[in-house]
Amino acid sequence: MAQPKRALITGITGQDGSYLAEFLLAQGYDVIGMIRRSSTVNFERIRHIQEKITLISGDLLDEVSMINMLRENRPTEVYNLAAQSFVQTSWAQPVFTGETTALGVTRVLDAIRIVDPDIRFYQASSSEMFGKVVEVPQRESTPFYPRSPYGVAKVYGHWITVNYRESYGMHANSGILFNHESPRRGLEFVTRKITNSAARIKLGLDKELRLGNLDSQRDWGFAGDYVKAMWLMLQQDQPGDFVVATGQTQSVRRFCELAFGHVGLDYRDYVVLDERFMRPAEVDLLVGDSSNAREVLGWQPKTSFEDLVQMMVEADIALLKVKR
Ligand code: NAP
Ligand code: F7E
After folding, report:
1. CB count in 10 Å sphere of residue 300
2. Average pLDDT for 59-87
3. Looking at the whole model, is its pTM more than 0.90?
4. Which residue's CA is minimally distant from atom 38 of ligand 2?
């Protein structure tokens, strides 16, 4: 009987890690998750599948922990989702962001090279690499112009992935994913901040929502749709770079309008502009051309922007009602 495929996910406690783990379990994989030591447990997003996965301690800052993890567990696929992923924090902690989000990628790739270079590798690259865009829409060939220490770190992560592919013939893939959201999104990101706030205001728990730039535009998709693209990349004969996006862009203002509108409120009555949430350098407009992913991987998004906003608002209302 064929052995089940075995995948190692770094960043399994994050938004994408939890959806990817669910997806891979459904495909019959053994799923191993790398978790970093912390004084309190943060398994909220994976609690419902915790019995079905194996969790092992390791850290992107520590290559030895990753070498040992690979030696002891022998995965056939590694998905590197771990990162300091919040753009705003990357200005406050630029060196830490570089250590984790940039050099962390080299540590994983090098551990794979040492233990078993046949392991297939996925790197979580980002549309933030396009930054101050030089072309609209952005595709795999669009030059990068990152606008934050996070974006710069992701450019490094992308190129070191390409380099290990070319230097060692590794099946190393870079998924250039545009923003993807869900009810599991961290509360600091703008979409979840808005849906959580709309729900809180509706339930009488808050009175206002403080935001930064309402005019910035993002290509927002649903995280549950995007993890399938990660997996598809590792099932191809040849590794590559793939933009994953919906191809439509919406403003933060429009997101507010829909989220508040869904609970019968007008965002203009509650949203207050706050300088603290403005960025030193902004990425004004992102919109992706995912033709390559659609043609080569057969991938396409299933969830519309309107359905995504509705899903997130309803999940936040349900969550708050349970907590009351
Ligand atoms: P997330 O929710 O912030 O999750 C990040 C994960 O990385 C968490 O599990 C975190 O662990 C882990 N981590 C951070 N530093 C670590 C370290 N030093 N060692 C080990 N683990 C560490 O991020 P996400 O939204 O799921 O995104 C997943 C990946 O895709 C990230 O690399 C992100 O930069 C990238 N990306 C995201 C988007 C998006 O729109 N979501 C788009 C493009 C690319 P703790 O739980 O312990 O903090
Ligand atoms: O900001 C504006 C903010 O923090 C989106 C990460 O997953 O996607 C994410 O990065 C926009 C920006 O995500 C607030 O200025 C206004 O223009 O939700 P965000 P992000 O920076 O796009 C990429 C693809 C990643 O790779 C990252 O890991 O919204 N904005 N007011 C605000 N943003 C926040 N967070 N908070 C505000 O109050």
Report:
1. 14
2. 97
3. yes
4. 211
